[in-house]
Amino acid sequence: MPNHEASDACCGAGRGTLSNLQRRGTLTYVDLVGRLTDLEALAMLPKPGETCQQWSSYNRASSYDQGAGKYVRWDANGDGAGIIRKEGELSVFAQMDGPGVIWRIWSATADKGHVKIYLDGASEPAVDLPFSQYFDGTQAPFQGKALCHTVANGKNCYVPIPYQRSCKIVAAEGWGRYYHFTYSTFPKETVGRPSDETSRPKKRPRWPKPTKSSAVGAAGIRPARVRAKARTSRPSPSAAAGRRSSRSWAAPSDHRTARQPRSSRGPG
To answer: Does the first or last residue of the chain, that is N or C, have fewer Cβ atoms within 10 Å of its Cβ?
Structure first.
């Protein structure tokens, strides 16, 4: 199957809430995490200029002949080790312009060879781990069974990795076989930080910045921290009911208090 086939429908993540934010030209990491579970937005078209694409290890012997208008060796099936090119001892898996985000990483046989992700032209990788550790739950933020899991012998990682200008992914020898990197590219005017500070909570998380203190650099927001911030991004029940509150953006300490017992609900 062609490796770099553009498809606005290939990414299984919602777009509605994200499209509203893009009209303001801003995105935060919490916005991206919210898109992973926005099922209603699956039925909505993306903003013009947004695309979803995928780099994979498909067999490069399969190609499209523009002059003849037909595919060449469409049946080529050695799909485990295809790459863009070699750079010294490294294999280049993916290279894309921003702004964008990697939604999903997949492999059938991820091994101990390191896979490095470079963001925004940095000389040091934001992520540098054995390929297997993107999936096995041993390294933050690639943890949590909802985000990193194995299904039918396929290893999946759904931790979003955003970038503003560019992203490049390379691998050392011994990385394994088979890979997918599914990503979206947003319109050029999209930026990874709030543009109107007066209309947003001051402590709302921004697009992650590179840091050397974490193994994941610019992608290094731990899932637990993302969840904690997300809970503080909506008014408390008292504020919603019209009563004054000094912490209108704080979530209740126990969300279960806002629910009715199952036995007290009506039919259905």
So the answer is: C
Residue ranges covered by each domain of the chain: 16-61+71-228
Average pLDDT over residues 88-109: 96
Token pair listed for 224: 């637990």
Tokens 């193994």 correspond to 215
Q: Which two tokens stand for residue 211?
A: 């840091």
Contacts of 197 (CB under 8 A, 6+ apart): none
Cα distances (Å, whole numbers) of residue 248 to 18, 241, 244? 23, 11, 8
In angstroms, the CA 31 to CA 230 distance is: 9
Contact 171, 132 (CB under 8 A): no
Instruction: With beta carbons less than 8 A apart as the criterion, state whether 178 and 57 touch.
Output: yes
134 three-class SS = helix
pLDDT digits (tens, 9 = 90+) for 46-92: 888 999 999 999 988 888 899 999 999 888 888 899 999 999 999 99
Mean of all residue pLDDT scores within the chain? 73
Amino acid letter for position 259: R
Which tokens in the block code for residue 29? 């990491």
For 123-143, write each residue's pLDDT tens digit: 999 999 999 999 999 999 999
Enter the tokens of residue 64: 């499209």
Strand partners, 157: 105, 148
Angstrom distance (rounded) from CA 123 to CA 118? 8
Taking 70 as the threshold, does the pLDDT of residue 3 lie above it?
no
* Alpha-carbon distances of 10 from 53, 130, 184, 252, 260, rounded to whole Å: 7, 27, 10, 37, 39
